[in-house]
């Protein structure tokens, strides 16, 4: 059974790699190179982070409205907060997926670039291209680290939100809401930290995009 599972996994990985290679090859035939795809994916990742910022802010606002509820149906306020939490969770998933796509094309681009440097016969041009590659890799790695740091801060915030939503779900009354107000300031601080980290990541993305575009 283990051998069969291993074979399936290897086949899947080979298929995925082949699909990516075929995709990049097809795009190059119409004049869209890995560099162009990488810039587009970094832009998409940046936009997904901006959208996630909005969703986390909205979730925080609805939770605050729920905790400060002073009349009407608690159930309605709870459902609004729950919907915004779920939207924030979806937005976080989108951010992770976009970053993964950036990594995928970056690996392909840098491998191709390094291989093609070896095909340059003139030493001075080969050295210039190697220097440019290293500069681009450093800039990329700095941006990627910033993206991943921001991404890592989303999970704890979502966990705290989920805990609150589940706790309130079966105990939706004024007394229960009052009991978790003390935790809200901590959640506010975590989201503020997340927003700051995402702003840094977005700034790094803009910097990288500018360095890659003509």
TrEMBL record:
Q: Which UniProt keywords apply?
A: Coiled coil, Signal
InterPro entries for this protein: DUF2959, S2_sf_CoV
Coiled-coil regions listed in the entry: 42-98
Which domain of life does the protein's organism represent? Bacteria
Which Pfam families does its entry note?
Answer: DUF2959
PROSITE patterns for this protein: PROKAR_LIPOPROTEIN
The region annotated as signal peptide is 1-22
SUPFAM superfamilies hit by this protein: Coronavirus S2 glycoprotein (SSF111474)
- What's the protein here called? DNA repair protein
Native organism taxonomy = Bacteria, Pseudomonadati, Pseudomonadota, Gammaproteobacteria, Alteromonadales
